[in-house]
Amino acid sequence: MDARTSDAARSVLEAPDIARVLTRIAHEIVERAKGADDVVLLGIPTRGVFLARRLAARLEEITGKPGRIPVGSLDITMYRDDLRLRPARALARTEIPDDGIDGRLVVLVDDVLFSGRTIRAALDALGDIGRPRAVQLAVLVDRGHRELPIRADYVGKNLPTSLRETVKVQLTEEDGRDSVLLGLRETTPADGK
């Protein structure tokens, strides 16, 4: 999620849209994986974890296997390449399902795909945890502007943006409502404008 969104942000996805795209992504995962027997969902904090849990619930509905889709979270803070450029941030939790990830299909889940650096960090973090059979990426929004050769396997919405725009994902679990807002980045005196 981008920070510093101006108050003039407009909604591009609301709760029903988000529910619909998560259902579509769940169906796509089942189709590509030919089921979901070896799928492990790992959400990238913060909102990716909530999205991963919602995807797991939909996968369980589709496959008729309640409680059988392992879900975890993958904190990437210490693997970021901008640690020395940003203020210190608190570590989130990494929670790997009891059966681990070795030999499994790991689907990383995040809210917004932007430069690709977060996903690169997640791939580095995964390498320290185990050796999945394959790794795929599911994102709610792909806003473009990639800086690394990374692409999502499952995209809720492609949202072409300019670098002056921000994308803010709100989820009920964290923000009290579901929405995706597109706004303009607030300028500061440091921006020289």
Task: Write a concise synopsis of the structure shown.
With 193 residues, the chain is an alpha/beta fold. It is built from four helices and eight strands, in the order βαβαββαβββαβ.
What does this structure look like?
By secondary structure, the chain is an alpha/beta fold. Helix 2 (47-63) links the parallel strand 2 and strand 3 (71-73). It contains 4 helices and 8 strands. It has helices spanning 15-33, 47-63, 117-129, 172-175; strands spanning 10-14, 39-43, 71-73, 105-113, 134-142, 154-158, 165-170, 179-184. The mean pLDDT is 91. It has one domain: Rossmann fold (3-Layer(aba) Sandwich).
Instruction: Please state how the strands of the largest beta sheet are arranged side by side.
Output: 3-2-4-5-6
What fraction of residues sit in β-strands?
Answer: 15-25%
Radius of gyration, CA atoms, in whole angstroms: 17 Å
Q: Biggest sheet, open or closed, and with what strands and sense? A: 5 strands, parallel
Structural class: alpha/beta
| Name of the level-1 CATH class | Alpha Beta
Indicate the CATH topology. Answer: Rossmann fold
Q: Which key features would you list for this structure?
A:
5-stranded parallel beta sheet; 193 residues; transcription; 8 strands; 4 helices; EC 2.4.2.9; Bifunctional protein PyrR; globular; transcription regulation; Rossmann fold
